[in-house]
Amino acid sequence: MKQYLKRFIGVNPLTLTLLTIIIGLAAYSFKPSFMEFMELKTVDLRFQARGKIDPGPEVVLAVIDEKSLEEQGKWIWPRNKLAKMIDRLSGDGAAVIGFDIGFLEEDQNSTTNTVEQIERTLQSRGLSDDEVVAELERMKVLGDHDKTLARSIKNSKSPIVLGYFFQKTSEGLTNVTREEVQAHIDQTKGSKYSHVKFSGQQALRIQLPDAFMPQSNIPEISNVTEHSGYFNMTPDQDGTFRWLNMVIECEGGYYAPLSLQTLAAYEGTDLSLNIEEFGVSSVQLGDRKIPTDESGRFMINYRGGAKSFEHIPVTDIIEGRIPAGTFKDKIVLVGATAIGIFDLRVTPFTQHNYPGLEIHANVVDNILRGDYLRRTNLSFFLDVFTIIIVASVLGFAIPRFPVVPGLLTAVALTGGYIGLCLFLFTRGTILSMVYPLSIVVIAYVAMTVYKYLTEEKDKRFIKDAFSTYLAPSVVNQVIKDRESLKLGGEQREITAFFSDVQGFTSISEKLTATALVELLNIFLSEMTEIILDNEGTVDKYEGDAIIAFFGAPNVMPDHAARAAIACVEMQRKLVELRERFAQEGRPILHMRIGMNTGLAVVGNMGSSKRFDYTMMGDTVNIAARLEGVNKVYGTYTMISESTYEQCKEYVVARELDAVNVVGKAEPVVIYELLGLTGEVDNHMEQMIEHYANGLAAYRQQQWKEAVGHFDKALAFDPGDPPSLTMKKRCIEYFKTPPAKDWNGAYTMTSK
């Protein structure tokens, strides 16, 4: 597992981006069934987001609903009732009447057989009466409901389009002869496309949806009209009806559905089928070009849920309860909507109880309005373009952005693309939603995992590299702000720290190597811990010397105060160590410290593979000089004026002098750090005051007065090295005055 993680971490974002794009395009090309299933569900959501739209006024549904069943009796009705309905519709001026009902068998409600049996009985008994015979003949005619329906169809001024269905396979059909199959095919010839155009030899080999045989209407009815169309519908894998097959092939013939044949009869135009090498390119209804997919499927642009179209109960039509002109110039589709008849479907708007009849109505209205749903060349281009762009944007953003902006980028891409899909859907263009959005998820997860693993690697690297000389809190802050570790460094105000053990050379000469290392480890460990506790950064160790700084890599407004407090604590800790070392027979250690505050260059300096986090500049050099200046004044903790000004609220210090250090033109005012605020006793305060008075007189070249003040300081601290040093210097200047241009600063002659 670790090996795979290492390989993954070794992959750069560009490679991951390209891999994501390849995965997305491969899935888009091969279209796995589960993704296509999800894609269909997004189409349903788009319908629901779009909401209902009003259909045109041309289509009216004559429905066999619960009311009609209650008044006219249970289904199946005698066909003379439908004949009466046709007469009413035709008389009212219907433009065309399409039946989503099949008349596949003879009407079982006809009384013709009974009348014929009575007639045979009378003849066998030798009974004959002209009036009786005439009445029997009339009863035979009226009792033959199929003939009655056929007569109404034939006499109708409105074209009648009959519905039928195809048997997809021969399963369940026993003893069906070839002649019977051909007879059914002959009865449905009015359902064929008038023209079928093949473009290229390959088009001839295209496999379209096919069927074993049609289940046609009985000849007595089908022979009286030229128009018919199948009402087969095939749901998607989830049982939802989203498409209508615009063509079914059977025995070399190409057949059109009921909705299309109804429109052809309505407009009085021919139907054409265009097949190219990739499949069906289009269906033509006169000048109308109807888009389909390569299999001849037409995506239905549903107007809404059930009853989006006007429903008129058939019983009201039969009983003449409909106002005159209701059906004038209308496309009337006749079918069942009653729940008990079981012609109910699932659509994007409904989970049940959507009449199959209304699906045909949607198709008719789609074609009349011309507001098709289709996947165009633009759809393909935008799908591919989106997959590439989404992967590229996330591949760039996620590794570079923090978590929240990265997540917001993914959310924005998702929301923007969904908005685009919804907008184009209302304009009739369908974009793939699942594949691009899957790429958002894949790219986001891949890049986030990559970022997490690489960041963890970087965090481990930073911790390994800095934990030895940075406080844990500082290390954590550095991990959050890695810009603070720029290779080459940056200018920053810091407080530089230099320390050195007094007389360490002579001490080391008296100890074995093992004892010396042990002593140093104890000393350096204790001192380093204090530096880190105050969030300082250890630059390096040079033997017994510690070089550190405060204020980088993390920005600290109080870096000078932290450094000063650390110095006081270190000197106090060293007092404890001296007691311990004395008990253990180890050498007694004293440490000199020099500190200065100012601008310096800090950062990783070196090569990209080997570097040190260090500091450079005059500020650093002065701090190093001040550590050495301690020797002149006999002090152990010396700070510059710039450091004192930033920490004087926290510490007690006395101004010692101003010195001209080697390599600097301007004198540096120096202070001795004596302790923390509130922790210095009265004797120390009075000594500081007398020393300050002596220093003022010294700078005015009032040597005798200065000596007097230094003596007073010595009265409070007889062994005070700075007072002794300055008193001696005053005596020397009294004997040999300084040059006339003397500025009160002491000139150092060595580093």
UniProtKB/TrEMBL annotation:
Coiled coil: none annotated. GO terms for biological process: cAMP biosynthetic process; intracellular signal transduction. Keywords: Cell membrane, Membrane, TPR repeat, Transmembrane, Transmembrane helix. The keyword Transmembrane applies. GO terms for molecular function: adenylate cyclase activity. The keyword Membrane applies. Gene3D superfamilies: Nucleotide cyclase. Residues 495-627 form the Guanylate cyclase domain. It is found in: Cell envelope. SMART domains: CHASE2 (SM01080), CYCc (SM00044). This is Adenylate/guanylate cyclase with TPR repeats.
